[in-house]
Amino acid sequence: MSAAHRHHLTSASRSGALPLQLWLLFQVLLAVPAISRAQALPSDAAQSTFPHRRSITVQGTPADGFAVVALPPELTSAAPDGSYRLIRSDEREVPYVVTRDVGESKDRRYTGELVDTRHESEQTVWVVDLGAMRRFESLDLTIPQMFFRRRVTVEASEQQSGPFHVIARDVGIFDLPWQTTPGGRLHYTTLRFPNSERARFLRFHISTRWRGFRALSLQAVTAIQHLSRPGSEWSMTVPLVPMPTPAGPKHAKAADQGHVSLYRVEVPPGLAFSRLAVSARDAGFVRAVRVLEIDGIASSSVLPAKLKVLTEGTLFRIAEGPVPMSAKKGDKAEPFDDEPVTGESLSLDLDETPGRGVIVLEVTDGDSPPLTELQATVSGYGSRLIFPLGPTTTAGSASDKDAVQQYALYFGSESARPREYDLAKLATSLARLSTLLPARLGPKESNPRFQKAQPLPAVPTSGSPLQTSGFRLVRPLIMNDGVELYSLLLSPIDLAYLRPDLGDLRVADGSEQQVPYVLVPHALETRSELQVTPEPAQTDKVSRFRLALRHDSQSLLVPLDAIELSVASSFYSRAVRVREVRTEATPYASVLCSATILRLSEEDAGLHRLPLPGHPVRELILEVDNGDNPPLELPQVLGVVAVPRVIYKADAQKAYRLLIGNPTAQSPSYDLASLRSVLIEYPSRLATLGELTPNPGFRPPGNYFQEGRMNLLLLGVLLLCVLVLLLLSLRLIRSPHPAPPAGSSEATEATGKDPTPPSAS
Fold first, then answer.
1. 178 with 286: CB under 8 angstroms?
2. 20 to 30 A from 310, CA-CA: which of 222, 362, 456, 582?
3. Residue 616, preceding bond cis, omega within 30 degrees?
4. Cβ(477)–Cβ(654) under 8 Å?
5. What is the mean pLDDT of residues 131-137?
6. Mean pLDDT of 465-479
7. In which region does residue 60 sit, left (phi positive, over 0), alpha (psi from -120 to 50) or beta (all else)?
8. Looking at the predicted structure, is the pLDDT value of residue 145 above 80?
9. Span 16-53, pLDDT tens digits
10. Of 32, 22, 89, 95, which is closest to residue 65 (Cα–Cα)?
11. Contact, 545 vs 634, CB < 8 A?
C-alpha cells in the first residue's frame, strides 16, 4: 500500500469517516501475506547450532509417499558424516536416508522392427514394433540420407491397431554440411522426451510438404531407457574464465579451422563430474568443442605439454530461419530438402573422470565470432537424500499435482551429531524405488539464529523425591558416557500407556529421585511392525487384512501418521483402501486413505507409504482390489508414529529408569524448561530404552473413583448395604415403644410412686 493510501485511511479514521476497528482490520489483512511468507520456512530456534540451510520444495503427490533430492558435492563436503537436520514447515523433524548407491548412469537399448511404411502426399509414415512394452526417454533414428531438414511427429500405442497418442510433435531432424564438425556433416536424428514414455508400437509422421522433397528411409530405431535413479544427478553452475590461445603444434589443426576460444572451467579440484552443458545467447550456432584436463599449471597464461582429452563433440543450436551452411571447399552443390525446424544439443558426456588438474573448454569458432554470454553447468551422480512426505490433499483430487510442501535442510554444524533414524531399516528398498518424487534444492542461505554451542550449562541431574509406586510400567535406561546430556525417543507402545498430555512420564534414579527433563512432543517419526491378520471378504476379488500394534496380547491405541507396506509380489497395480475399526456394531468405518500402489519391474522396490490423519486408532482394515489377479503377499507392514523426545542430564555410572502410566500424577514442573531452546540442539548422547515391564512396586491407589476403575460388583454391594440400613432405620423410627412391665424401674420413674405396698404392722 502506498504512503498516500495510508495517509488517506489514517485521515479518514481520525475524522470519523472510517471506523477505527475497520481500519485496524484492513491493516491486519495487509499483513497476512507477509506472515505467510515468514512461515514458508520453519523457525530456526531449534537448529541454532547449524550455520547454513537450504530450502527444499516438493510439488505434487508421490505414488509411494517418498521424495528425493540430489546432494551436490559442496553440500556433502560441508557435512561429510551426514549430520543434517531436515525440518518440515510445521517445525517437525523429518527422518531421511542418504544413499550412495548410484555411481553412474546406465542405458538400456531396445531395437525396433519396421513393420509398415506408407508414402502419402505430404508425409511418410513409419510403424515400428519394439517387441514388447518398453519404457524409454529417447529414440535414435538411423536415416542414411544426407542434406535434409524435416519435422517428425511421434505417436505411441500398446497395440498395432491403436489407439495411438502423440508423444512428440514437429520435432526437428536434419543432416547439414558443416566444415568444422567431424566428417564435415552435422547429422542429428535423436528424439528426446522430457519424461519417460511407455509403448510397444511407434508411428512416425515425416513431413514431405514440397513435391521436390525426397522420401527418407528408415534403417533402424533404437529406444533408450536411462536407468539412473530419480534424484541421483546433481548439477552445479560454474564460471568460465577466458584464456589466451597458445601457439603450438597441438593447436595447429584447430588454427587451420579458424579461431579457437579457450575457457578455464572453475570447478573444485578433484570434482568427479560426468557431464558438461553450456548455454549461450546466440540464436543459432554450430561449434566443435573439446574438454581438456591440464596438469602442472595454476594460471591461464600458457598451456603445458601434458594434457588429456576428457571428451570431444559438437554443440549446436539450429533456429527456424535459414542456416548458413559451411560446406568443404571443392564440394559440389547437393540437392537440399530445407524445411524450417529447430533443434539443439548443448551438453557433452565425459569419456574419462576428471582428476585434480585444470579443466579447460576448447571451442572451435571457425570464421564466426565467439559465443556470447557463454555459461557452463557440470553435473554428476552421487549421494541422494530420501525422505517421507507429510500429508497433503486427499488422494485422487485434482490439486494433487499442485500440492507444495516446504522443508529446510540445515547443515554445517560443528557440534551436532548425526541422527540414528529407524528409516535406515528401509534404506535398501528406498534406494531401489523408482517412484520417488524429485524435490528442488534451493540456494545456500545463512541461518539467522546461528550461534556456536556453549559449554554444558549447570543442568541438574536430580530433582525432588518421587513416589514410584503409582506408576504401572517401567523401562531401564542404558547409557555409557559418564555425566553427559542424554536424549531418548519414546516408542509407540509407550504412547499407548501414557496420558494424552504426557504428564505421567518420569525419569528416576536408583535413590527414588526424579530427574528433570525437557520434553519435545512429536519430535520424530518412528516405525513399529504391525500385526497383519487376514480377514474374510465379501468377494474373492478383494483381500482384507486387519492391522494392529499389539503388546501383551492386546491392541494398542496409537496415533498413526502413516502405514508403510512391503509387498513381495513383482508386478501389480492395485487400488487399496484403509479403514478404521471402531466398534462391533460398525466394524468398517469411513475410508482414511485411498490410493493405487504400482510396481512394474523387478528392479523396483515394493514399498508403499499410505498417509493417515494421525488421530489415535486401535485397529485398521486394509482392503486390496485384486480383480482377477492373485492376492498380494505382504511380508511386513509398518506403522509410522511421531514420538516425543526426552532430554535430560544423567550419570551413566548410576541406574536410571523410565516410569510410565500414573493417571493420578500431576504434570511435572522443572526449572530446566527455561533452558529448552539451548538443550534441544545441544550435542547429546543417545540413551537406549530397555524392555517395558510392569513396575514391581506398583500399588493401585485406594480411591477407586479417582482411579476410574471402580468394580461394579463392589458398587452394587455398597448400594445394597446402604439401602438395607435405610430400611431398618425407617422401620425403627415408625414402630412404637412397648409398655414396660409392672414393678420395673422404668414404671417407677414414669409414675413417681413406689409400686410396692406398705407392709402390715
1. yes
2. 222
3. no
4. no
5. 89
6. 92
7. left
8. yes
9. 444 544 444 444 444 444 434 334 455 555 688 889 99
10. 95
11. yes
The three-class DSSP label of residue 434 is coil
CA 167 to chain CA mean position, Å: 30
The cell numbers describing 359, all together, are 579443466
Give residue 78's region: left, alpha or beta (phi > 0; psi -120 to 50). Answer: alpha
CB 433 within 8 A of CB 604: yes
Residue 172 has pLDDT above 90, yes or no: no
- The predicted-structure confidence for 605-630, as pLDDT tens digits, reads as follows 889 999 999 889 999 999 999 999 99
Grid look-up 528426446 returns 192
CA 280 from chain center: how many Å? 35
Which of the listed CATH numbers 1.10.1060.10, 3.30.1490.100, 2.60.120.260, 3.30.460.80 matches domain 107-226? 2.60.120.260
Say what the pLDDT of residue 180 is: 67
Amino acid residing at 329: K
Long-range contacts of 600-603 (CB under 8 A, 24+ apart): 600/571, 600/573, 601/434, 601/571, 602/570, 602/571, 603/227, 603/432, 603/434
Contact assessment for residue 328 and residue 177, using Cβ atoms and an 8 Å cutoff: yes
Is the sign of the CA dihedral 642, 648, 651, 654 positive or negative?
negative
| Domain extents in the chain | 3-38, 45-100+383-446, 107-226, 233-381, 462-718
Beta carbons of 339 and 214 less than 8 angstroms apart: no
Question: Can you name the CATH fold of 233-381?
Answer: Jelly Rolls (2.60.120)
Q: What angle do CA 516, 520, 524 make, to 5 degrees?
A: 135
The proportion of the chain whose per-residue pLDDT surpasses 70, expressed as a percent, equals 78
Contacts of residue 102, Cβ cutoff 8 Å, sequence gap at least 6: 228, 229, 232, 381, 382, 384
